[in-house]
Design goal:
It comes from Thioclava kandeliae. It catalyses: 2 GTP = 3',3'-c-di-GMP + 2 diphosphate. By secondary structure, the protein is an alpha/beta fold. It is 48% helix and 18% strand. Strands 2-1-3-4-5 form a five-stranded parallel β-sheet, with helices on both faces.
């Protein structure tokens, strides 16, 4: 089955007919004849979506919607509210109560199913994001701070700038704090090529210079980095059922009326926009938390360098590239000389300062394609892709000089002399395993220590048989 759907309607024939239509589309359907039964069923069954009729025997459909959306256990479940065609007051009340979609009766079956698919896709995305965040929390990564919600910027794209300006004036009755900007197709595509589009939402007319051109524009925007996460709503004529269904199935967040002149219509639209924008802010924050969690999972918090968890897979990729391209590369292990004495003599705060400054100095020498990681207390790993032996040795000597030529300044102004020992191993397409490479570099580094420290020793990896 595609998912469980709960129908709350007091009229048995309505419930049975709607169940037959949804069962035919392979949905698992549960039925409730009143609000109390719907709440009990929702808590017990945890449906993927709830359909609520406006009239119930023990409470109004609006009351049931409000109770669902304020219940922590049920609030994430999408709600479709069914109301009489001319009952605008009930429609607006349901939207204010948290309904995700309002459909007038008699509803169009094909459009209803398109709405169902759209809401269930969004619910699946939300659930997946929550699962990832929960996994990161279980691993010990805290959620990032919630940022201040700046006013949302909304772009308006109509067949003419004059019509888009009419939309702007109408929506401005209810969105005084938000930015409403008239755009044309070219401007929208240009902005979408930026890493971060300035628009949180776009309202696009289904028909621009040609019929359904707005749908093609939406598909273009969904494929571009700057606008793929934006809320995109298609404005279509009420009678354009096929256009509405196609828009929802192509990824529109909503289908809005093209005629926005009536005050009730603009209030309806702005309530829906606010809901979509609130969801976008939640998803944006979740993505930001996940990105920060991934960064923290691979970064050494003291030095800001990559850690061992990140470095070893990257070293494997560098080695694999060398195998395919038949080019050499270099691996170094660097260890601070007599670091324990620094900690014992001056304290761990000075030791941390030394590690941080070493990381900074090493970073200034290496290029953007080179790998630099702190893999132990005072041990660093460096990999230089596409690097022949002579260049690798010159780089290693330079790293030694960068550390030992200039004293490290303590907080009290006194100078501290620091040196490093480096073990260098040169690899080519005949390499052994990564573990063998790191072990060889470690042996070379120990040779540096044994021979007096503050120097580079090279270990040539033997050829495979």
């Amino acid at each position: 089955m595609a998912g469980k759907i709960l129908i709350a309607d007091q009229i048995a024939t309505h419930r049975i007919m709607l169940k037959a239509k949804l069962s035919g589309a392979r949905y698992d359907v549960a039925l409730a004849s009143d609000g109390r039964g719907a709440l009990e069923c929702a808590i017990r069954e945890r449906p993927e979506l709830i359909l609520i009729d406006q009239a119930l025997p023990d409470m109004t459909g609006v009351d049931l919607c409000r109770r669902i959306k304020t219940d922590p256990l049920l609030s994430e479940i999408p709600v479709i509210f069914l109301h009489q065609a001319q009952d605008i007051a009930q429609r607006l009340a349901a939207l204010r109560a948290g309904a995700d979609v309002c459909l007038s009766k008699p509803y169009d079956e094909i459009l209803l199913l398109a709405r169902l698919r759209s809401l269930l896709r969004a619910r699946s995305t939300d659930a997946e994001m929550r699962l990832r965040e929960s996994t990161f929390r279980d691993l010990g990564f805290a959620e990032g701070p919630t940022t201040f919600a700046a006013p949302s910027r909304i772009g308006l794209i109509a067949p003419t700038r004059a019509q888009a300006s009419v939309w702007k004036q109408a929506l401005g009755r209810h969105l005084p704090a938000n930015y409403l900007t008239v755009l044309d197709r070219s401007e929208a595509l240009s902005l979408a090529t930026e890493a971060q589009s300035p628009f949180d939402a776009l309202i696009i007319s289904a028909d621009l210079s040609r019929r359904d051109e707005g749908l093609r524009l939406m598909a273009e925007l969904r494929a571009r980095a700057g606008s793929k996460a934006a809320v995109i709503c298609i404005a279509a004529e009420d009678a354009a059922r096929e256009t509405a269904v196609m828009a929802l199935d192509l990824g529109a967040d909503d289908v809005l009326p093209a005629d926005m002149s009536a005050r009730e219509t603009t209030e309806d639209i702005t309530l829906r926009l606010r809901r979509h924008l609130a969801r976008k802010r939640r998803l944006d924050q979740s993505r930001k938390n996940l990105t920060e969690g991934l960064r923290l999972a691979t970064i050494d918090p003291l030095t800001g360098l990559y850690n061992r968890r990140y470095a070893m897979p990257q070293l494997e990729r560098i080695a694999e590239h060398a195998r395919r391209s038949s080019k050499e590369f270099a691996v170094m292990l660097l260890d601070l000389d007599r670091f324990k004495k620094i900690n014992d003599t001056y304290g761990h705060a000075v030791g941390d300062m030394v590690l941080t400054e070493v990381a900074r100095r090493l970073s200034t020498v290496l290029g953007g394609n080179d790998l630099l990681a702190r893999i132990g207390g005072e041990e660093f790993l460096i990999a230089l892709p596409d690097c022949p032996a002579r260049e690798a040795r010159l780089a290693a000597d330079l790293l030694c000089r960068v550390i030992n030529e200039r004293p490290f300044q303590r907080a009290d102004g006194s100078a501290l002399h620091v040196t490093i020992s480096i073990g260098l191993v040169l690899g080519d397409n005949r390499l052994h395993s990564i573990d063998h490479l790191v072990e060889a570099a470690d042996q070379a580094m120990m040779m540096s220590k044994h021979n007096g420290r503050n120097q580079v020793q090279v270990y040539h990896c033997p050829s495979a048989a």
